[in-house]
Amino acid sequence: MNFLAKTIGTLTGTAIPYSFNEPRVLPICENPNSRSIWKVYDGVSDKDSTPVTIFEFDLKNPANYNYITNAKNALKKHKALSLLPGVLTVFETIENDRTLYLITERASSLAEITSEISPASAVLAIYQITTGLKFVNVEGSCLHGNLRDHNVFITDSGEWKIGGFEFAFNYKDNAIEFPALYASYPALTFQKGMIISPEFESFGSDCFRTHLKGGKSLKFDSYLLGLLSYQISHNRSPASNEVKTQYNNWSFEGIPINKLLSPNVGLRMTTEQFLGNGETSYFGTPEIVAYSKFSHISIVSLTEKLEVFKALASADISAKFLDFKVMPEIKNVFDTTTSNEGNIQTILLYLMYLIHKNSNEESKSFEIFFKPTIFKAFTLSDRAIRTILLKILPHVIENITKYEVQDKIYPNLVTGFLDTDLTIRTETLLSISYVMDKITERQLNNDLLRYLAKLQVDPNPKLRANTVVCLNKISSKMQSSTRIGVLITAFGKALKDTDYVTRLCAVRGFESSIEYFTPEVCCSKVLSSLSPALLDKSSVIREEAEKTFEIYMQKIRAEATSIKHNEEDDHIEVDVSHLSNLMDSISLENLGNSILETVSTLNTPSGTPFPESRMNSKNNLTRLQSASTENVVNKAFGVSDDFDDFDGDDGWDVDDDEIENAKPVVSKQSSFNKPKSVFGATVQKQETNIINKPSTINKKSMVLGKNKPVTKINLNLQPKVEEDDDGWGDGW
Predict the structure, then answer these.
(1) pLDDT tier at 646 (50, 70, 90 boundaries)?
(2) With contact defined as beta carbons under 8 Å apart, do 168 and 77 qualify?
(3) Residue 726 scores a pLDDT above 50
(4) Are 180 and 134 in contact (CB under 8 A)?
(5) What are phi and psi of 378, to 5 degrees?
(6) Are residues 683 and 579 in the same domain?
(7) What is the reported pLDDT for 82?
(8) Distance between CA atoms of residues 320 and 323, nearest Å
């Protein structure tokens, strides 16, 4: 469409430096039901991409012949009145032999608005239109002549402005030809069902020479203002019979609309009178007062600016006005303020947030004004600013790209972990869960984990508990290679914390992190770290720990059932049975009984307490030792009787000469009061000079298929006679 229009325009010499969208409003020449002589487009400037509204009038269309005078008059008056407050701003007018173009700021007419207007917004809208019309009537010395819903516009900045000056004229100019200008008035007004003033209904355009001569003509506009005010406040146009019979009772939020609709010209207020009477009453609301001061915001004091911003940000007014008018001014004040004395910058940040919160999703004010202010505020060291930023961050993080978070927010954000103020540290920690999806892996797995490790030993218990919660939240973003070690260490350490809330958070952290741990890790590390909580002083923590422990056990059992049967399972029970039998055979009780039985079978004369006293030779002693000890040990450790691998040695490694020269000494103690040996046998302690050197038996026993050496125990009953130097002279 744009390409075709520009191509045709170039060929015919009518091209203009703007790109057109589809027509938004069709003119009366194309749509008989239309009330406009213009074809209206939304467009964009080719020079600087500024959004505009383009009004186009086709001079060559025969159906537009009767409206050419009005179209040219509109271009002339628009250019002359454009700089007045409340008038639609004109960027450019273009005329050629074929077409007239009126280029204005981007705006939509009230007739195109389908949503209802809130009462507070309606009051402000009536005030803005009244103010604009007053400037046209008084400062511009012009009568508008056709103040209708299709000639009142709402700009992209949310302001209500006046356009459509097809019937406007300077009421001080007596040379104006009213019949020529107003010849098309009926076709565009009451023939379309619109209400006109009683004097025009009675006298036509001649009323401007008779009843509305000179300054009285302004009451023509005030009557139309009353009709428009009723439409805005009631979200519908009044019927003709309603105006004639009920107008005297019409009032809205204290605004006396009836004063504008009197059929008697003498009793009807002018726009200037209506505005002046309302300054201290119906137009004296905080929103309107703030709006009126905002028009000259650059010359008021800083304190007054704050009051204006507060009133507007909390008012029920157009979000567009706040986005594109108030927000830029707040940003300008923030940037030019050098300190946060009196929390000025803190308040400005919060007001910008309130405006953003109530703005439309399509608003660009966040990108243009609010986001740069957030980045700058993070570089400031003031704690009040940092606190409000951290409170705002969760609500705006979706509108900030991950690259902006990584480069402009995170490096300044984490400095709050080192702040000595507890509130800053806490708010910084809480904000991590909102930025963790947008920071780099290195920032999360290296920098952030180091900060969290320090916070886990913070003096404040609530901060330590929140650290555990934060670790649990960011665990899904951790590298798999470090996650297991970090979580087990951190949660295990938290279970030893003196604060019961921290310990409870650790137990719940284990519960929610089970998916990250393999069954092997659960067995080897997790359960050992979690188990101290089973005996925690708090019953709540113990119950939580039991539940969590059972969850891990279920995971372990599920894994165990999936392990396949192997060959060891076939003979493990048999091996365990053999082991049990062997252990029974070498138990202390069995070994002791075997020794007792052996000793009891010795053939010793009753007059001699020990057989040693009757030994006269080496052979007798050898036979005694062989009979009393070797057989017992062999039986205890499972050594076979036919095992013969001593190479002629007698097993004790004792010299024969020592035995021959030994002189036995008779014990002074009774044989019935002797201490028991480690095998349970009663032995007689003898004093002798014989030195016995027992040797290790080289026999071996088989335990579960493995060779195990068995040591021959020395049961010599004639110990060496020595001095009791070590203090053990207690009968051992």
Answers:
(1) very low
(2) yes
(3) no
(4) no
(5) -70, -20
(6) yes
(7) 92
(8) 5
> Within this chain, do residues 508 and 421 fall inside the same structural domain, yes or no?
yes
| In-domain check, residue 303 | no
Tell me the mean pLDDT in the region 648-662: 40
Residue 385 placed within a domain: no
User: Which of 40, 42, 33, 46 has its CA nearest to residue 6?
Assistant: 46
Residues 452 and 487 both lie in one domain: yes
Judge contact between 146 and 140, C-beta under 8 A: no
* SS3 label, residue 689: coil
Q: State the distance between the two ends of the chain, measured CA to CA, in whole angstroms.
A: 118
SS3 of residue 309 by DSSP: helix
462-482: average pLDDT: 92
Supply the CATH number for residue 550's domain.
Answer: 1.25.10.10
Q: What is the DSSP string of 139-183?
A: IS-EE-----GGGEEEETTS-EEE---TT-EETT-TT--HHHHST
Lowest mean pLDDT among 378-387, 461-470, 476-485, 642-651: 642-651
**What is the C-alpha to C-alpha distance for residues 509 and 503, in angstroms, rounded to an integer?**
10
Residue 228 phi, psi dihedral angles, 5° rounding: -65, -40
CA–CA dist 538, 549 (Å, integer): 16
Residue 637, domain member (yes or no) = yes
Q: Which of 82, 109, 136 is the last residue of a domain?
A: 109
Threshold 0.90, pTM exceeds? no
- Residue 557: is it exposed, middle or buried by C-beta count within 10 angstroms (0-12/13-18/19+)? exposed
243-281: per-residue pLDDT in tens? 988 988 899 999 999 999 999 998 999 999 999 999 889
**Pick the residue with more confidence: 728 or 298?**
298
- Under the banding of pLDDT at 50, 70 and 90, the label for residue 591 is low
- Asked if 149 contacts 231 with a C-beta cutoff of 8 angstroms, the reply is yes
**Residues 451 and 414: beta-carbon distance below 8 Å:** yes
558 and 580 belong to one structural domain: no
* Residue 69 tokens, joined: 């005078």
Residues 6+ apart with CB under 8 A from 505: 465, 468, 469, 472, 494
What is the rounded CA–CA span in Å between residue 685 and residue 721?
10
154 DSSP β-pair partners: 108, 160
- Does position 694 have pLDDT exceeding 80, yes or no? no
Number of domains in the chain: 3
Give the residue numbers spanning the domain of 63: 2-109
CA distances from 297 to 89, 134, 305, 330, 580 (A): 20, 21, 7, 10, 98
Count CA within 13 A, CB hemisphere, residue 685: 13
Name the helix (H) or strand (E) containing 44.
Answer: strand 39-45
Task: Tell me 239's DSSP state.
Answer: P
Residues 552 and 595 in one domain: no
Beta strand pairing call for 706-709 and 700-703: antiparallel
- Residue 116: pLDDT band (50, 70, 90) is confident
Residues in the chain: 732
Q: Which two tokens stand for residue 195?
A: 């209400």
Nearest-angstrom CA–CA distance, 715 and 625: 8
Question: With 70 as the cut, is the pLDDT of residue 641 above it?
Answer: no
**CA 69/CA 183 separation, integer angstroms:** 10
Q: Which of 434, 162, 182, 394 is nearest to 271 (CA)?
A: 162
Give the confidence band of 8 by pLDDT, cuts at 50, 70, 90. Answer: very low
